[in-house]
Amino acid sequence: MGYREELWQAFSDRNAPRALEILKVHHELVNDVSERGEHVFKEALSFQPDGDALVKFIATSSHFNIAYVRDTGATGIDDITTSTNPVVLGYFIDNPAILVNRNKLTYATVSADLDSAKSAYNKLKQKDPNSEQEKTRKYEAKIERLTTMLSMIREATIRYALATDDPTWLQRLSDAYCILGSPISDKTSDRANVFSLAKTQGKENINAWQEKRTSHSSSATILAELQTASPAFQKAAQDVTQLQSQKLQEEAAVLKGLHQSQRLFLNKVAEIVGEAPSIGPSPIAVTS
Fold first, then answer.
1. Positive or negative: CA dihedral 228, 126, 120, 187
2. Global pTM?
3. Cα–Cα dist 37/235, whole Å
4. Is 34 helix (H, G, I), strand (E, B) or coil?
5. What's the CA gap between 144 and 152, in Å, rounded?
6. Contacts by 147-151 with C-beta closer than 8 Å and gap 24+?
7. Could you tell me the residue ranges of all domains in the chain?
8. Cβ distance 96 to 67 under 8 Å?
9. In this model, does residue 265 exceed pLDDT 70?
């Protein structure tokens, strides 16, 4: 049996120490794919937590190719994000390749995963809490891990944008509903945001982008962004518009009624004094 066959036999036997032992000698196998189309790294992730040392060895190997695509279409970055393990993400956080997956920001992917986990958690909370305690605890832990991962990938993306002075990264983050003005890092010793750092570091492209972005900002633009971001807001805005229209109609009807009453009164006066009444047209036209 060759070393490749031994490696996959170790995976089949769930023997992480043996798999690690083989990979330390045969580094080229860190990118190997089984006959079933499984990737070594994906298999190693399935061993956690028993395979932590194995995962770390593969992830930090200079031979490892993060850009692999499995037969299912899943990528290396998919396997990293679906692990919901901040430690695994941390092995790649300084590698710009981790920032984008299939032309989509990894930030947007993790954000969507977090929203999905929160939704599932809220649904569980609405059920019998006694029967769903174990699942609830699992989702609480998953939400905590994904929140940490989202913070990590946000910081990495912003720092890469600063390093390259490329505001397109910030635009893509903004499009993914990332709040750019908040501090880059959660560390109390590093609370600066991207715009203050861009000014301090003299990032001309980012500063110009932010200046243009600020100068074009208006209530109409903000309203449009909110409407795009929230269907619920759109419905609320429509309701407000309808109420305002109804209110205007009601006020117009009252004014028209007052005008008609005034005309009738003046006609009575004219009959008494023998003069034609002088009154202008209705002050407002009511349209249906």
1. positive
2. 0.73
3. 47
4. coil
5. 13
6. 147/114, 148/86, 149/81, 149/84, 149/86, 149/89, 149/110, 150/107, 150/110, 150/111, 150/114, 151/186
7. 1-65, 90-217
8. no
9. no
Question: Tokens standing for 271?
Answer: 């009959």
For residue 79, give the H/E element and its range. Answer: helix 76-82
pLDDT per residue as tens digits for the range 141-163: 999 999 999 999 999 999 999 99
Name the residue among 12, 20, 90 with its Cα closest to residue 51. Answer: 20
- Say if CB 22 and CB 10 are below 8 A apart: yes
Structure tokens at 142: 């998953």
What digits encode the pLDDT tens for the residues 158-170? Answer: 999 999 999 999 9
For residue 84, the model assigns a pLDDT of: 95
* Confidence at residue 8, expressed as pLDDT on a 0 to 100 scale: 95
Q: In Å, what is the CA distance from 231 to each residue of 117, 234, 235?
A: 21, 5, 6
Q: Which two tokens stand for residue 23?
A: 């990979």
